[in-house]
Structures are given as structure tokens and as C-alpha cells.
Design goal:
Number of helices: 9
CATH architecture of the largest domain: 3-Layer(aba) Sandwich
Largest sheet: 13 strands, mixed
Shape: globular
Distance between the termini: 38 Å
Radius of gyration: 20 Å
Length: about 325
């Protein structure tokens, strides 16, 4: 994702070369979509995006569980070896997102590739709850009550090509089918104002920096390293810079990378290393005293209007 969001002209040349493969990808995408019967799930919210990579889905999912009562999280749990009702005892089998949700959300979490099957098998747990689907816009069997699409204002569409020539999972015109668009950052996105649906901007506020014991600390050293394995590492790096900290070097691993002890042993010991909360759940069992994680809070512009719209679309007033 970082490459396709760069200012290099090569990303367009690369896109043109791989365009035939993008056509094949999209034809397969449309065929697969047409073969699935869609099931209407009452009281359901999908949080997703139309690009490959991070746009802040996990923080938004956690935000919704905090602001809406009686919720449950439904997620594929990318890289997880577990399906069903996730609990702390399953920690070693769960994905980084699911482990982060378990630590932060007081709500049932159901994971599995066949999400509708998992919902049916856990019907008693999920009864009368608002189901929040993490990354479900391309989950074809689902017809949700509310579709929320996230865009990063710094790089909404990459080079405008579909995978693999670009980062788009679907063409930008599908935004017309969304109920709400959430835009990370405050930049205006070209031509988005022409789409007639509610649009809200959101940003991150740092709640604090925490150590291995979960204690809030102050970083006295103004020079730090960063460590991340998320879809959009630039977003995290910018968050660190906003704390007026100088980044000596950034260690960036592939999205959802499972850290090994050998990886951490290669990291420097002379300066603090800052990582994301999602990354931290994968390394908290390793002894590395100079690694700290940043905890963030989502701030949505016109929050009251946003929450009232959610409740209205759900068809009832959820306190």
C-alpha cells in the first residue's frame, strides 16, 4: 500500500503493465459475487473499505462497541486458527485484531471465515445484539443494515487501479452504494462531495503510551524507533511524529506479520521502541523492556449527528 500511495510516477506505469491482470481479477470478483445469495441481517453494521490495506477499521469497530449498547463483533479473524466464540483461553489461536478486541471490548466476539454459519451456531449469544462486521464489504453473502466505508484522505484510491495493478478491491463508483463514508483525516477527497450520502471525518487522539505492564508512562527520550506490521504503517508513523518525537528508524513488517523472538532480538536497545496496540498483543509475551505501545482514541467530527444517523438506520434508538 505504501508504494501505491507514493508520489512516484512508477506506480502508474506499474498499473498500466498489470492492468490485464486487474481485468481478470475483477471478472472473477463479479462472478463470485453473482454466485452468492445475499442474506439480510437485521441490526447489522459493516465496517470496511474498498482498498487493500489499513484505513482504521479496527479502531472504528472498537469505537462503535463503546458508543452503541448490546453489540457483538463478527470478524473473519485474518490468520486465525480458531472459529467460533472467541475467549481469552483461545489467545494463541486468535489473530492480532481479535486479541486486541478481547482486551478492549466488553462484547461477544465471533470469528470464522463463514461468518453467517458462525452467527447461526452462536444464535443464543448474539440474540438482540447489534452485529458489527469487521471488514465485511466484500463478504458477498451478507446484506447488512448499514454499510460504512472507510477512506484515508491522504491516499483514498492509490493509483486508481484494481488489484494487482493497484490497491483497489472494487472501483470507486461502488461508494454510491454505501450508507455512510468515514474519512480518516481532514483533507477533502476529489469529487467525493458529489456523492449524495452522509460523510464524516475522523482522526486519532493519543490516549497515552503504555509499557509491558499496561502502565501509562512518559517518554523522556525525544528519539525513538517505531515497529509495526499493519496495513498502513505511515498512519502510525505520522501519529508518533505528532507527539513531537523524532523517529530514528522505522521497522516495518508485512501486514499481520507474526513476530518471532529472533526479530525482536535484532531491534536496538539504546532507545524506546514504539508500536501499535495491535502489534503489541503479538509481542507482549516476549521480554523486551524498551518496547511501548500507543493507545489511540477515535474522534469523529459531528459525532452526535453520526451516532443519531446510525441509530436511525438501525430502526430504533439504541442507548
Amino acid at each position: 500500500m505504501r508504494y501505491f500511495c507514493s508520489k512516484s510516477l512508477l506506480k502508474y506505469i506499474y498499473g498500466i503493465i498489470l492492468f490485464p491482470l486487474s481485468v481478470i481479477y475483477y471478472l472473477g470478483f463479479l462472478i463470485k459475487k453473482s454466485l452468492n445469495k445475499r442474506k439480510d441481517i437485521i441490526y447489522s453494521i459493516v465496517v470496511g473499505n474498498i482498498v487493500a490495506g489499513g484505513t482504521g477499521k479496527s479502531p472504528i469497530v472498537m469505537y462503535l462497541t463503546e458508543k452503541i449498547s448490546q453489540t457483538a463483533i463478527i470478524t473473519r479473524g485474518y490468520g486465525s486458527k480458531f472459529s467460533g466464540f472467541a475467549q481469552l483461553k483461545h489467545k494463541e489461536k486468535l489473530s492480532d485484531e481479535v486479541n486486541m478486541y478481547l482486551k478492549n471490548c466488553d462484547t461477544p466476539i465471533i470469528c470464522g471465515k463463514d461468518r453467517l454459519k458462525e452467527i447461526a451456531e452462536n444464535e443464543k449469544i448474539l440474540k438482540n445484539r447489534v452485529l458489527i462486521f469487521d471488514d465485511g464489504l466484500q463478504y458477498f453473502p451478507l446484506d447488512p443494515t448499514i454499510k460504512i466505508c472507510l477512506l484515508d484522505s491522504n491516499c483514498p484510491f492509490g493509483n486508481y487501479f484494481l488489484i494487482p495493478a493497484g490497491i483497489l478491491r472494487e472501483p470507486p463508483w461502488v461508494l454510491k452504494k454505501m450508507d455512510i463514508i468515514l474519512i480518516k483525516g481532514n483533507r477533502n477527497i476529489y469529487r467525493l462531495d458529489k456523492l449524495d450520502m452522509p460523510k464524516f471525518h475522523f482522526t486519532y487522539e493519543v490516549k497515552g503510551i503504555f509499557n509491558m505492564k499496561g502502565e501509562k508512562i512518559d517518554i523522556n527520550d525525544k528519539e525513538v524507533y517505531t515497529l509495526s506490521s499493519i496495513g498502513n504503517p505511515n498512519s502510525f508513523i505520522n501519529t508518533v511524529k505528532e507527539l513531537n518525537l523524532k523517529i530514528k528508524k522505522s521497522y516495518i513488517f508485512p501486514d499481520h506479520y507474526k513476530y518471532k523472538n529472533t526479530d525482536l532480538k535484532k531491534l536496538p536497545k539504546d532507545k524506546p521502541i514504539l508500536t501499535t496496540e495491535k502489534d503489541f498483543v503479538k509481542i507482549e509475551n516476549f521480554e523486551k523492556e524498551n518496547i511501548y505501545f500507543i493507545k489511540i482514541r477515535v474522534n469523529i467530527d459531528n459525532e452526535l449527528e453520526f451516532l443519531q444517523l446510525i441509530r436511525k438506520k438501525l430502526g430504533y434508538y439504541n442507548n
